[in-house]
Task: inverse folding
């Protein structure tokens, strides 16, 4: 059974993430979407909210939703899954991901990363931009799944 972990902040889940999850499910039998719980950062949505939004958007039983703190390699070891799925949007993502993949492999020689290129329709979508646009009253419909859209609307009524 081919299993991969898809880690990220998912603050919030976007259609870019969703596309990677959907395409990942064509390649892997199961995906663990792992929400990073970083106590050094103040997220827009709590870990529980982020997890709930992913669960609601991806009810597929082949998707497990989990969260982790600390080093990714410690988490992958605990899970016994050494394959990590990541999405690539642009050259800037590549540089960062290249460093990260090599650092993780240095920390755990069993660690492996698999990358998927984002599609035309979501290469410009990031959680950070979605947070910024939504918090300023902009329309993020079509950039995030409907569940996330409704949650953002509740928090930031459109101007
Ligand atoms: P963001 O960079 O949007 O804050 P995360 O830290 O949650 O997102 O990223 C988790 C993973 O999802 C990373 O591998 C990131 O490159 C990927 N990802 C994020 N947005 C997209 C997108 N629009 N298309 C493809 N992959 C994406």
Result:
């Amino acid at each position: 059974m081919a299993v991969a972990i898809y880690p990220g902040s998912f603050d919030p889940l976007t259609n870019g993430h969703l596309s990677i999850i959907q395409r990942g499910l064509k390649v892997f039998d199961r995906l663990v979407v792992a929400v990073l719980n970083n106590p050094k950062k103040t997220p827009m949505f709590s870990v529980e909210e982020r997890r709930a939004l992913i669960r609601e958007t991806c009810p597929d039983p082949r998707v497990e939703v989990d969260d982790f703190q600390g080093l990714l390699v410690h988490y992958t070891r605990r899970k016994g899954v050494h394959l990590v799925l990541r999405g690539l949007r642009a050259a800037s993502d590549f540089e960062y991901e290249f460093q990260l993949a090599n650092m993780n492999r240095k920390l755990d020689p069993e660690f492996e990363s698999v990358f998927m290129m984002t599609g035309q329709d979501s290469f410009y979508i990031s959680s950070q931009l979605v947070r910024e646009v939504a918090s300023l009253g902009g329309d993020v419909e079509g950039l995030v799944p409907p569940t996330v859209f409704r949650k953002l609307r509740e928090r930031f009524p459109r101007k």
